[in-house]
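Hi there, hope your week has been kind to you so far. Would you mind checking whether the C-alpha cells look sensible for this chain? I owe you a coffee for this, so here goes:
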Amino acid sequence: MGEEFNGLIDALSYIRVRDIIDVIIVALAIYKIFTLIKQTRAEQLMKGVLAIFTFSIVSRLLNLYTVSWILEKAMTAGFILFIVVFQPELRRMLEYIGTSNLFRKSFIDIQYETAKDIVEEVSSAMGSLSRQKIGALLVFENKTGLNEVIETGTRLNSDISSELLINIFIPNTPLHDGAVILRKDKIVAASCFLPMSDSQTVSKELGTRHRAALGMSERSDSLSIIVSEETGTISVAEKGELKRYVDIETLKEILFKFYNVDWKEEEEDNSGKDKE
C-alpha cells in the first residue's frame, strides 16, 4: 500500500501547472460544444459517433481485424461527413467565438434618449397588437449580422414608429407575413423568413412565429419579440430560450437591457436635474 501511494505521489509530481491549464481548456471546450448542440439533431448524431468510436477501440482490443478495418475507414470518411452534418452547429460555434466580448465591443451602442424612444415605440406597438390579438414577430439584430435573413424580405430602412409597426402586421397587408428586422434605431426590412428551431423540447402548442423566433435566437445573438394571434400574449426569445407571458413593463426592461442602457439610473439622474 505504501509503495502504491509513493508511486501515485511520484506520478503527480510530474504534473505541471501548464498541464492542468491544458486539461481545463479542453474540458471547457468540450462542455461548450455539448452546450451548443444540446437538444438538437446533432446531439443524437454525436452519440452515434461516440458509439462508433467506442466499438472501434473494443474491436482493436479483441483483435477483430475486419470490424476494426471497416470502422477505421468509416471514421476516416466520417470527418467529411461530420463537417457536412454539423454545419449549423459549427457555424453557431464560430459565430459565438466571433461575437464574444473578448474580441469586440457590443454592437449596440446608442444614447439613452434614442433607446428610450425606441423602447416606447416598440412597447406601444406590441401592446396595441396584443390587445387586438394580431400576430407579430420582431427581430432585433445584435452583433451577429442578419443580412442573409434581411435579403429574404422587403427592405424599408425606416425610422422605428409604433404606427408603422402596427400597420405592417395588419392581416392581409403585403408585409404582414414574416418577421420585421430592426438594426439599432431603424426598421431594416419586413416580411423576412426565419429558420425554424431544431429544439426537440419546443411545446407543440407553439405556432410558427414562436418556433421561428427560437430558431433565430439559436443561430444568433438576436432578440425576438412575438405576439400570439391566438391569445395576444407577448413572448421574448433570446439565447435559445423562450420567455412567455411578458407584460409591457417587463418588455421595456428587456429592451433597455438589450440596448445596454441602465434606464433606472438615467431616470433617477433626469429626475434629479428636474428638481434642480
